[in-house]
Amino acid sequence: MTTESSQQLPAFKGLVQETGAAFAAPADQSLFSSMRQAGIDWPVSCRNGTCRTCIGQLVTGEVAYDIPWPGLSLEEKRDGYCLLCIARPLCDFVIQRT
Ligand code: FES
């Protein structure tokens, strides 16, 4: 009998709309980190959700944030805009540049 000391969180599938680049996106790390690990270029600066350099728009999918109010308006969030440096995936997703 074996016991698991830690549970592994799921990795979702991410896709960049413009290039078709696909990558694994673990639920416990930012979309930007997953893209970087896959060798995908994406603009980034502050990495804390304030400068908006990394902004993208979800074509499909959903994300969550660890901070209560990232640098996006309610309307932008409704329209699928997200800050990839701090957004974590909740499911498979497609992202596009803005
Ligand atoms: S890099 Fe600044 S908000 Fe993401």
From TrEMBL:
Superkingdom: Bacteria
SUPFAM superfamilies per the record?
2Fe-2S ferredoxin-like
- Record's InterPro entries? 2Fe-2S_ferredoxin-like_sf (IPR036010), 2Fe-2S_ferredoxin-type (IPR001041), Beta-grasp_dom_sf (IPR012675)
Keyword terms, alphabetized: 2Fe-2S, Electron transport, Iron, Iron-sulfur, Metal-binding, Transport
Q: Does the keyword Iron apply?
A: yes
Q: What are this entry's molecular-function GO terms?
A: 2 iron, 2 sulfur cluster binding; metal ion binding
Q: List residues of the 2Fe-2S ferredoxin-type domain.
A: 10-98
Q: Does the keyword Transport apply?
A: yes
Its required cofactor(s), as named, are:
[2Fe-2S] cluster
Pfam families of this UniProt entry?
Fer2
Q: Tell me the protein family, please.
A: Belongs to the 2Fe2S plant-type ferredoxin family.
Designated name of the protein: Ferredoxin
Q: Which organism is it from?
A: Malikia spinosa
